[in-house]
Structure formats: structure tokens, C-alpha cells
Amino acid sequence: MQRVLILLIFSFSFLTVSAQEIALLKYKGGGDWYANPTSLPNLVTFCNANINTHIKPNPETVEVGSPDIFQYAFLHMTGHGNVFFSEDEAENLRNYLMSGGFLHIDDNYGMEPYLGKELKKVFPDQELIELPATHPIFSSAYKFPDGLPKIHEHNGKRPQAFGLFYKDRLVLLFTYECDLGDGWEDEAVHNDPSEVREKALKMGANIIKYVFEH
What we know:
Layout: H1 2-16, E1 22-26, H2 39-50, E2 60-63, E3 74-79, H3 87-98, E4 102-107, H4 112-122, E5 129-130, E6 160-166, E7 169-176, H5 180-184, H6 187-190, H7 194-213
Parallel strand pairs: 1-2, 1-3, 3-4, 4-7
Antiparallel strand pairs: 5-6, 6-7
């Protein structure tokens, strides 16, 4: 009963106090959750300037198992390697997503082989579903008629956006063979052309706008 009351309190705080705040998700397993340190601050700057958001300029870092995740409408997760959720962490993340939260996982190259089994801990009865190019997340602020843009080549595969749903609401987005986070980074980090970085930032803004409006 005490745990339920705590969750309800955090859910209420999340829904009313932090409707436009985002955070970086820290996880266990050895993967570099801290990759792309300039990406979220740059995305926030772009969103605040272009889609009328009012997000704090330097997003916090929160751990998967912490009740602090309920303070944020949007969590971003990235990395190159292994991911591990304990059962308690998976339950905490599941409760967060079911109570209105959203998780964007951006494969920074190499995360995908480890992710599936951990997401099964969060939603055991669900599979990732590829989102069609007609999904509103690809047009919420900027038009991407072909769906997810390709930012970095990696294996040369087409970029794909996968989702998990709870009661018909998209609660988790997994972007694969795309690497939006690299495109959000400072220009000097990857030397991406300005048009590539702009595509990445616009798609990131689409995700933020879609989440804040749903």
C-alpha cells in the first residue's frame, strides 16, 4: 500500500509539475549511457527556439530504478553496448510509462542486440512494432514523409523507428540505424554537414512535441 501511494504521489507530480522537463536515463550493464554529452542540451536549445517549449537548458541524469524518473515527461536513453535492468528497475520503468511517461531509446550503434531482452522485463507481452512513415510523430512539427531520417551510416541499413504502446498510447520509441543523438551533438564532434544536423534536430523536435502533446 505504501509503495502504491508513493507511485501515485510521483505520478501526480509528473503530470502537473514537470510537464515540460526531460532527463537522460542512466542504466547498468556496461553500456555508455553517458555518450553524446552535448546532444540533449543542443536539442533543448533547438526546441525552445523553434517549437515554443520551455525546457531547462541542462537536462538532469536519472537512474532507471529511481523514483525521480516520475518528475520528467520525457526520458532519453542512448549508448553503444550492453543494457541491463533489474526486476525492480524494470517495474519502476513500467510504472513510469504506464502513468504517462515516455522513453526515447536512440541506438548509438551496438545497443540493439542487448535491448530486446531487457524490454521484455518491462512489457513481457509486447514486441517492438515498426512505426509507419504516416505516424504523426513524423509530422508533429516538421514533415518527414519518408519516416525516420538517416543521420549516420553505421551498417548501411535503413533507419527504423520502433514503438511500444500502452492502452493505444505510444510510450516508448526506439530509433535504430539512425543515430539522432550524434546529429544533435556539437558540430565539431562528428563534423556532420549542417543539413544533416538540422534533420536530426528537427526529428528530435518532432519527438518532443509529439510527447508533450500526447
